[in-house]
Design a protein that fits this description.
single chain, 356 residues, mainly alpha, DNA polymerase, domain 1, hpI Integrase, Chain A, three-stranded antiparallel β-sheet, 13 helices
């Protein structure tokens, strides 16, 4: 893309051009339209010496050459220098606004930490290996858990990868740092006896209770339970696009799920009438668990853990469980097999020890 230079005279128009100062303009075609852009910081004066004019010419030529490269990159779909000056914070916020439920909540929290650390403006070109390492230090100084830090850094990483696809940056500086690793956390789930206790416990909010039990027997996330409509259920099978992963899952219904659905026929469009906020749903389930006299820290997502552990403990192969859960990666499912192995080990260790 060719960028030509033009002269724009300024100052007193009654004077001859020889006696008037002037600036150089960049004349080019962009998106099919002619544009002229003044090199603002450089002004030529009648009193300039030849050497001063040469120095100014060199600066203007550098600006012209950079613009020419940028226009060529834009035409060929390559990274734009101008785009690299865009606000990463705003880009991150807009990307987070495309998420739903708990996922969006995590993006919002990451954004809060970003603004606390950087303020409301950060250009892409200023995101470096050093900046990311300093952001990690900032997060550690907030006394956050290691896994929370991992989650927030993963959101930064995802946004930078998206910026590469959008031709804003060439590479992700995250690749050059040693990122914190996620620590294994205890998976809380209910046993068959505990599920029966929940079912037998009278509760003031049967919508939430039925939704929780339905998740225990279908594996649906809270966000998908909230969004579940009668039209998503056909031929005794749930078929829907998961809110979190966007994967299509097909889950055959068992008798317990069908029994719960019979109790939900009073709802016309959505199967369950639940709170808009996951945190509110979690508070309700904690009250239910307390009434059932179950001494575990249970939240709604534990129903999904319960579904997976019940399947694995029943001998269902890990690949089938992964498909039913809608996991993108089999590694996400293998953690449940490890939980069952630990349970088996505890069972064996509980046997009477013989002394020889």
């Amino acid at each position: 893309m060719s960028v030509n230079l033009r002269i724009r005279y300024i100052g007193n128009k009654s004077l001859s051009k020889k006696n008037r100062p002037y600036k150089k303009q960049l004349d080019y075609i962009s998106d099919g339209k002619r544009a002229r852009e003044t090199v603002k910081d450089i002004t030529y004066y009648p009193t300039d010496s030849k050497e001063e004019k040469k120095q100014k010419d060199r600066i203007v030529e550098t600006v012209r050459a950079k613009l020419e490269i940028e226009l060529g990159n834009k035409k060929n779909g390559l990274v734009s220098r101008q785009l690299q000056k865009a606000n990463f914070i705003l880009y991150f916020e807009n990307f987070g606004n495309t998420k739903d439920g708990n996922t969006k909540s995590t993006w919002d929290t990451t954004l809060k930490h970003l603004v606390e650390f950087q303020g409301k403006r950060l250009t892409f070109e200023n995101i470096s290996k050093n900046w990311i390492e300093n952001f990690i230090i900032h997060l550690k100084e907030q006394n956050l858990s290691n896994n929370s830090i991992v989650t927030y850094i993963n959101k930064i990483n995802a946004t930078l990868n998206k910026a590469i696809k959008d031709n804003i940056i060439v590479e992700n500086p995250m690749r050059y740092i040693e990122r914190p690793k996620k620590e294994e956390t205890e998976i809380v789930y209910l046993t068959k006896k505990e599920i029966q206790k929940v079912n037998d416990t009278p509760f003031w909010d049967n919508e939430s209770k039925n939704a929780f039990l339905f998740s225990c027997y279908s594996g649906l996330r809270a966000s998908d339970i909230k969004a579940l409509k009668w039209t998503d259920i056909k031929d005794n099978t749930i078929q829907l696009k998961q809110k979190k992963t966007k994967n299509i899952v097909r889950i055959p219904l068992n008798q317990t799920c069908n029994n719960i659905l019979l109790n939900q026929k009073h709802n016309k469009e959505s199967v369950f009438n639940l709170s808009e906020h996951i945190c509110s749903m979690n508070r309700t389930i904690k009250k239910l668990i307390k009434l059932a006299e179950i001494d575990k820290k249970v939240h709604f997502h534990c129903a999904r853990h319960t579904f997976a552990t019940l399947l694995v403990s029943s001998g269902i192969n890990i690949f089938t469980v992964s498909k039913l859960m809608g996991h993108k990666d089999i590694k996400s499912t293998q953690v449940y097999a490890k939980v069952i192995d630990e349970e088996k080990q505890r069972a064996v260790n509980s046997m009477l020890n013989l002394e020889f």
